[in-house]
Protein: SH3 domain-containing protein
Organism: Flagellimonas hadalis
Amino acid sequence: MMRNIFFPLFCLLSVHLMAQDELYPPAIEISDPTLSKFLTELTLAVGKKDKDFILSHMDPNVLSSFGGNGGIDEFKEYWDFEKEHTTFWDELENILLIGGAKYEDGSGSYSIPYTFSDWPNEFDAFEHYLILGTHVNVRSAPSAENSKVLGQLSYRIVKLNQSPQDNSESESQWFNISTIDGKLTGYVHGKYLVSPVGYRMVLTKSTKGWVISSFVAGD
């Protein structure tokens, strides 16, 4: 079920690196009203699972994977788009909730989320994650029960120490992480972690307005 989304809280966002190992939430900063309008409409389309809106605002050569040739038919097949169980809506919602970077140069291209477009080069994108949230608990074990809170982190880039662990009781994923300075190591629930090479969307300004030109993950 679609979570409540308030567009001004997450969109169009500039990243401020306050310290070497911290990536703070971006501030709303976008100069093109057509992009703001499109992202608002896109957010509403996600809430309604409006397939017609998505398909009518898609580049004919949209890229869905790095191993494919692109195109709307390939997109439909890749995402099982016509089926009820498609995960496309969840992935797009997550991207919109994270938010994008600032846009003011009129380049005609916009990437979202900012964890992809503005990720600091000094942190390997496959070995680091962003903790998305404030006062996120770092625990002594991969469980919210019977584990000690070792500390809390807010919008911090952290190093991933191992693959996610399945919690048999909650069926959730936990990650073992460390802060860049190595002063805190523990487990963080996966819902608070964002990979810079996760799904991202590139929008392109065409003659008919903004369209989705790619929706991919990986490198």
